[in-house]
Amino acid sequence: MHEFSYFHPASLDEAKKILAGAEEGYCLAGGMSLLPTMKLRLSSPKSLVNISTLPELSGIRLSGDALVIGAATTHYQVLSSEVVDGHIPALSSLAKGIADVQVRYRGTIGGSVANADPAADYPAAMLGLGCTIVTDRREIHADDFFLGLFETALQPGEIIVQFRIPIPRRAIYLKMANMASRFAIVGVFVAECQDGARVAVTGAASCAFRARQFEKLLNRQWDAGALDDVDVPEDELLSDHHASAQYRAHLIRLMTQRAVSQLEIPA
């Protein structure tokens, strides 16, 4: 690992000032993705700014018809929160399936979303729940956040502060996981929201995406059988040693149907 400067600010304002003056500065939260890439010399930041303990980035609370979750909240805090489980149990279930217990205790929701790994779980939840990502500069809807492979709408030095997540009528997350890493080979997040159906997919392409053809059919009829004849395009899906694009396309439809059936949403 190369030499770098390390900063541990006490406030968000201090973190912003450090990042503004730092050369090639990176935010460090749980470090579950950044530190391994640094050890392999795939990433070489000259400055690390630890934001994991900033008070502005902590906490889980109910605000009207939405959950507000601080960006530095760990996966374990999400899965063990009575507020999360009481209002969006699908999010608790998703957090329980992330990696192993060590990662769940250190990794953060903000770090996962900012990293935008194509096989990560939280991006599907952000899209499936219609989340608003609040940064130190602006608000970004999840539909506009994930742009490509490890690419997001975040600007250099921009820090995710919290997530504002509308509470759905009901939701569920299912995934076929890589048994070694627990990353999704294919994961689907299906929700009945106030504005209709939302279906988000992770693990299958260069970044998480919404399956709008499924949403359109489910808004007409909440029935798994309504998706029987949907042809999922394979041209933009991943094909690797875990699964071919054809198999991923099959899994997307099959798992979405299973999710709809398990939700038991009345027509």
Describe the structure.
The chain is an alpha+beta fold and 267 residues long. Among the domains are: 49 residues, Uridine Diphospho-n-acetylenolpyruvylglucosamine Reductase, domain 2; 94 residues, Enolase-like, domain 1, CATH 3.30.390. The chain is built from 10 helices and 14 strands. The chain has a 5-stranded antiparallel beta sheet with strand order 4-5-10-6-7. The longest helix is centred in the last third of the chain and has 19 residues. The radius of gyration is 18 Å and the shape is globular. The mean pLDDT is 95.
Q: What is the number of strand segments?
A: 14
Number of helices: 10
Distance between the termini: 56 Å
Order of helical and strand elements:
EHEHEEEHHHHHHEEEEEEEEEHH
CATH superfamily of the domain at 170-263, called what?
CO dehydrogenase flavoprotein, C-terminal domain
* Helix-strand category: alpha+beta
Which geometry do the CA atoms define?
A: globular
Query: What name does CATH use for the topology of the domain at 170-263?
Result: Enolase-like, domain 1
Q: Report the major sheet.
A: 5 strands, antiparallel
Q: Can you identify the CATH class of the domain at 170-263?
A: Alpha Beta
Q: What Rg do the Cα atoms give? A: 18 Å
User: Main sheet: which strands, in order across?
Assistant: 4-5-10-6-7
- Indicate the low-confidence ranges by residue numbers: none
